[in-house]
Write a structure and sequence with these properties.
The protein is α/β, with parallel strands linked by helices. Helix content is 33%, strand content 25%. The protein has five domains: 174 residues, P-loop containing nucleotide triphosphate hydrolases (Rossmann fold, 3-Layer(aba) Sandwich), CATH 3.40.50; 209 residues, P-loop containing nucleotide triphosphate hydrolases (Rossmann fold), CATH 3.40.50.300; 60 residues, Arc Repressor Mutant, subunit A, CATH 1.10.10; 57 residues, no CATH class; 196 residues, no CATH class. The chain is built from 25 helices and 32 strands. Helix 8 runs parallel beside helix 17 and helix 10 packs across helix 11. It is globular.
């Protein structure tokens, strides 16, 4: 296996090794159905890892189980064993497998079919399933593989067509459960409660089997997703090969400004080097744009010397057609592809065959995701290489300077709020469509159900008949629910000359990503948004040749709606509560890809958008303000806000794009300089609540980040943000350090309600 060293590459800032680990085995359970044992033996599986055996015993006893072990540890067998055993005993039994991505569904079907068990009849039922095949799948499949989106809109509202399935449903499998967090998780938690309610109507009470990557709160997440109690299996009995972990920082090109060489070029160069050495490699990047750029650059590098090798590389991300995705997945599985550049679409447990190396191009947002990505390489006891290449992002640079803070840090907790008012109301309406809501349904939807149902009745979405609520409209409420965002509203991205649909973007982010003039990348091609039809929800694009990218500028205002919690934190009073956020994209910059030089500033005329959310805030007391030069105050609080937002993902399992912020030199409600940090999704999903509880640690880490950066006056590695609506103006590194020092001095007492 190839190894990297600082002697070869001066970009390497740290190298560490994880030692190999032997597996812990148990014998195959004697009570397991003989055909299942024989099929597993034919596949080379004659013993179980200890966590597989533990999950089997609990599931056989009728307990709900959540398994949390590392990538490639054989979690699939934890749920396949009890399900296959049940199907071997009864031809009428059914199982439901839920996956967050279609790629995982396809992968699981391959595994099930590979066992060649005649009594196993898997059927995929998702948006790619031809309509003509669906009735047969409903009747015949005894393992139904789908995703929460299809369960929401294509199965639960049509329960009459699924009566036999619900009546005989014995197991519900929720794979990669850690991906159900934030907005998506809050939606899925409601969908699962609707599923449990319908099962109850047909007299079934299926056992739930969940698997998750290593996270801080697997039991809590399982309970939040389903409303049930769980047994936790967390001791990993699988073997692990030696892993070299490399921290790679692109070289500085301007030390004073803190500018570094492009991460896209750095990643493409290392990727191409590994491929030339025959090292099967996956590159993970956070954005679709990054995926396409790294693929383009690496392909050009490979074509210079080996066109055949260049053909063995592919990008992979959301937005591709089903046929394109299946072809790439098949190429990986069959070893036709030597390398893939992917978004997190391949981060989850799809079997990608014998991968030798993983390059994580920028921090993926959470420690848990980073370990999940690195776990894609080194199946079984095979050695592997894991590389973390830093961008100019503040969090990336924090880890480059403090690698132990990453390697020794506990993984984050997955957060969701199924009663988020923006989300909960839509699902209650969908549940009422499926069957009238009765008081007993609180056992599924919680004590907040009655009040929410009354509000829906006031909006004439439900009709009340004594203690029962029925759906009052003629439409189809589940169709209006988009599980991947807090709103079902989205813009389609259409190529204006051919009419081809390239993808879609949520309406609340459309003005930011597909405003008129925006550069949009798809399958390696560069497009420019020519027209944004706001009423028709369409962005028309056309292919262009461009050596620049675009950054939008927006104006933001925040109104305090309600303060729910407050407490002292050092010299400030910290508050948490409901906020009304108003945003307006007013212009955009064109910046050169090569050196980030600003080419042009273009004004836009787009309407305001507003949403209610939750967040934390604090004002600077007079004794702090007096120590800051008046002309530097705005830059100081703005830079402090950026530092807090940059590191908040370390305390909540989220991406910095899930967080918004505002620094007001004089806020009309607080009467002083105020910093707001809020959940970037309507209704809020618990992100900034974590920041409120961990504020002292968050402020201390932010101080360490900013003060430890070697730049002169602030750079992308400390106080500049890639999502700043003000285009990073004004910012003051010196005053941010001063402010954080002054607010980080004392530990805080317990929080209390705003009313005292």
């Amino acid at each position: 296996m190839v190894r990297l060293s600082p002697e070869q590459f001066p970009q390497i800032t740290a190298v560490t090794h994880q030692a190999a680990r032997p597996g812990e085995h148990e014998e195959m359970p004697p009570e397991l159905a003989a055909p299942v044992k024989e099929a597993l033996a034919a596949a080379g599986i004659r013993r179980l890892y200890s966590h597989q055996a533990g999950a089997w015993k609990l599931a056989r006893a009728g307990r709900n189980v959540v398994v949390t072990t590392a990538s490639a540890s054989g979690k699939s067998l934890c749920f396949n064993l009890p399900v296959l055993d049940e199907l071997a005993q009864s031809d009428r039994s059914r199982a439901l497998f839920l996956y967050p991505t279609k790629a995982l569904t396809q992968d699981q079907v391959r595994k099930l079919q590979g066992l060649r068990l005649k009594f196993v009849r898997p059927g995929i039922y998702d948006g790619d399933t031809p309509a003509a095949d669906r009735p047969q799948i409903r009747r015949r499949a005894n393992i139904l593989l789908t995703n929460p989106d299809m369960l929401n809109v294509g199965i639960l509202p049509h329960r009459g067509a699924w009566e036999d399935f619900f009546f005989n449903l014995k197991y519900v499998v929720v794979d990669e459960a850690h991906s159900y967090r934030g907005v998506f998780g809050s939606h899925v938690a409601n969908v699962i409660r609707r599923l449990r309610r319908i099962c109850s109507m047909y007299g079934s009470e299926p056992v739930f089997l969940l698997t998750t990557a290593t996270i801080a709160n697997p039991g809590e997440l399982a309970a939040a997703l389903t409303g049930l109690d769980f047994e936790l299996v967390s001791r990993d009995g699988s073997p692990r090969g030696e892993r070299q972990i490399v921290f790679w920082n692109p070289p500085l090109v301007d030390a004073a400004l803190g500018l570094r060489k492009s991460i896209f070029g750095e990643t493409a160069g290392l990727f191409a080097d590994l491929l030339r050495q025959g090292v099967r490699t996956i590159v993970f990047t956070r954005t679709r744009k990054g995926c396409e750029l790294i693929y383009n650059y690496s392909r050009r590098l490979l074509e210079e010397k080996d066109r055949e090798l260049a053909e063995a590389v592919s990008p992979y991300r959301g937005g591709y057609t089903p046929a394109q995705r299946r072809d790439i997945e098949k190429g990986l599985f069959e070893d036709r592809l030597l390398g893939v550049v992917s978004t997190n679409a391949l981060e989850l447990g799809i079997d990608v065959g014998g991968i030798d190396a993983v390059i994580s191009a920028t921090f993926p947002g959470t420690v848990a995701s980073l370990w999940q990505q690195w776990g894609r390489a080194g199946r079984g006891a095979q050695p592997s290489l894991a590389v973390f290449i830093a961008g100019m992002d503040a969090l990336d640079q924090f880890f480059m300077n403090h690698p132990d803070q990453l390697l020794e840090r506990d993984v984050e907790a997955a957060i969701l709020d199924f009663q988020n008012p923006q989300i909960f109301a839509g699902h209650l309406a969908a549940a009422a469509f499926e069957a009238p809501l009765e008081p007993d349904d609180e056992r599924f939807f919680g004590p907040g159900m009655a009040a929410a149902a009354v509000r829906l009745a006031a909006e004439r979405r439900l009709r009340r008949r004594e203690d029962v609520f029925v759906y009052a409209r003629s439409d189809f409420p589940a169709a209006a629910i988009s599980l991947r965002s807090s709103s079902a509203d989205a813009f389609s991205i259409i190529e204006e000359q051919t009419g081809a649909v390239l993808g879609e973007v949520e309406a609340d982010r459309a003005f930011f990503f597909v405003h008129p003039g925006a550069i949009y990348l798809h399958l390696g091609e560069v497009y420019q948004v020519r027209h944004l039809d706001i009423d028709g929800r369409v962005a028309l694009v056309r292919p262009v040749v461009a050596d620049y990218y675009t950054l939008p500028k927006k104006e933001t205002s925040v109104e305090i709606v309600e303060r729910g919690l407050r407490r002292r934190s050092g010299r400030i009073e910290l508050s948490f509560g409901r906020l009304l956020v108003t945003e307006q994209v007013i212009a955009y910059q064109k910046k050169l890809l090569a050196d980030n030089q600003v080419l042009e500033f273009v004004d836009l005329e787009l309407p305001e958008q507003n949403f209610e959310t939750e967040g934390l805030w604090f004002s600077l007391p007079e004794e702090i303000v007096e120590q800051i030069p008046p002309q530097e105050l705005a830059g100081g609080i703005h830079a402090t806000e950026h530092g807090l937002i940059a590191l908040l993902p370390l305390y909540a399992m989220c991406d910095r794009w899930d967080i918004g912020g505002l620094s007001a030199e004089m806020h009309w409600q607080t009467g002083g300089p105020t910093i707001f940090v809020y959940d970037g999704h309507p209704g809020g999903i618990g992100i900034t609540r974590s920041g409120f509880h961990s504020f002292e640690e968050l402020a201390a880490d932010s101080l360490k980040l900013i003060s430890g950066c070697p730049c002169d006056s602030g750079c992308p590695s400390c106080i500049q943000s890639p999502k700043c609506g003000n285009l990073n103006e004004p910012l003051s590194k010196v005053e941010a350090v001063r402010i954080l020092k002054m607010i980080s001095r004392a530990k805080a007492p317990e929080e209390k309600c705003a009313n005292g």
